[in-house]
Structure formats: C-alpha cells, structure tokens
Amino acid sequence: MIIEFISMMxxxxxxxxxxxxxxxxxxxxxxQPISVVVLSTLLVVLGYYKYGITLIGLYHLVFWxxxxxxxWVDYLTxxxxxxxxxxxxxxxxxxxxxxxxxxxxxxxxGLVGFGLFLGIYLGAKWVYKxxxxxxxxxxxxxxxxxxxxxxxxxxxxxxxxxxxxVGIGIQKTLGKKIGLKQEVAFGPAICMAVILSVMYGETWxxxxxxxxxx
Length: 214
Known about the structure:
Layout: H1 2-27, H2 33-51, H3 55-77, H4 82-100, H5 103-127, H6 135-148, H7 150-173, H8 187-213
Helix pairs in contact: 1-2, 1-3, 2-3, 3-4, 3-8, 4-5, 4-6, 5-6, 5-7, 6-7, 6-8, 7-8
C-alpha cells in the first residue's frame, strides 16, 4: 500500500512537471506549478482506481494529461492550440485501432461530438451574431469523441455546459467578476466533463435508463 502510494505521488509529480512544460510552451505564460501537479496527481489516483496498473490505464492517463494541458492553456489564453487537439484525436484513434480493435465506434463518437458542437457553433453565430464558443472547442469535442465513443460523447457534450455553469458560479463565489458579455474559456469544462464521463458515465446512463425508460 505504501509503495503504491509513493509510486502514484512520484508519477503525479513527474506527469505534472511535463504538463507544466507543455502548458508554458503552448501558452507562453506561467502555469501555477503546484496546482498543475496537484491535478496531475489526482488524475493518476483516479486512473489507478479505475484501471489499475495496466497498458490501458497508461493510455487513459496520457490522454487525461493531454486534456489537462489543453484545458489549462485555454484557461490562460482563451484559445485552444490545434496541434494539441489533433494529437489527442490521433492518440485516441491509434488506441482504439490497436488495443481495442473498435475504431468504428471512435469515428462515430468523433463525428457526433464534432457535429453536435459545430451545429451549436453555427446556430449561435446565425441567431446571436456571435460565437457561443470558439471553433477550437468544436475540434476538441471531435477529438474526445473518438476517445469516448458514441454514448459517452453525448453525455460529455451536455455535461460540459453544466460543468461550465458550476465553474462560473465558483469563480463568482470567489469574487471574480464575470459579465454577461465576457469571454470565458469553455475548454476546461469539456475536459472535466470527459473525465467525469469516463469515470462515472456508464453508471449514470444505466441509472437513467432504469429510472426513466423502463
């Protein structure tokens, strides 16, 4: 138990250090090292709890660290670097192709995520004459759709808006002023919704089906 705890702490610090370097490279801003390492360690713990020490667990951890970088850069700069999104999508596709053997499910999830957010993006631009979120968020949802597959992509898509509302509420509670017309990073909400969907999505969906459909 002690060895596992020490191993997770060391892996969290190591992963967090790499994430800090990537965040600083893509954002050209300081990345609050302690906060990044804490989140990185939390992701390591969640990954171990969900998958144990396995090759699949390592795959998920790498993807989650990528989400940490993407979300943090978006929070700092209000923009998503296209390269990071493409890298996540490629990582997810290769995993599904070589380890799971079900790349079709990933492609469907990618199309659903991209299509759903593209529809919201274009619809908001047509009705309100402005973007509901940036096109980088559309690309991000397409990439995480490959990772999640069809069902969990739908869940994460809707969940991301609730996560964003909670995030705004927390920031207001802490005293940060956020106006109605102020631009807010949506990428962190997507990234958090993805991890929540992976950890608890199947349980939530099963509960919903049993409670409301049968």
